[in-house]
Please model this.
Amino acid sequence: MPERGPAPRRAALFGALLLALSGAVVLPAVVPAADEAPAAVVGAPRVEIFTTPSCPFCKALRVYLEARGIAYIEHNVNATEETRAAFYASGAQGVPVVMIGERVIEGFNPVAIEAALKAP
Model:
C-alpha cells in the first residue's frame, strides 16, 4: 500500500534539497549582479537575492529560482561594502535574503516566495 500524508512529501522535498546541495545540479557560471534585471516577464516583480558562496540554503534558493524560471539579481554579501550595507539595511540577520518588490523574505522559504510573486 503506497504511503500517504505529509511524510512522503517531506521525504521528497528533503531528497530534492539534498540533490541540490550535493552539487549534482549545475548552476550558471555567471549570475547577474548589476542594477539592471535580466530579461524577464513584463510586469513581473523585481527579485533580488543576498547570498554568500558557502551558504547551502543560498544554493538551494538559486536552484529553486532557476528551476521556476524566475529572473533575479544576486548580490554576494561578502563582495563589497555597498552590498553588505544594502544587506544590513534590509534588516536581515542571515542569508539568504529574498527581496521581491518591497517584501523582504529571510531564509529559503518557497511558500513565502510564491506568495510574494503573486501579490499585487
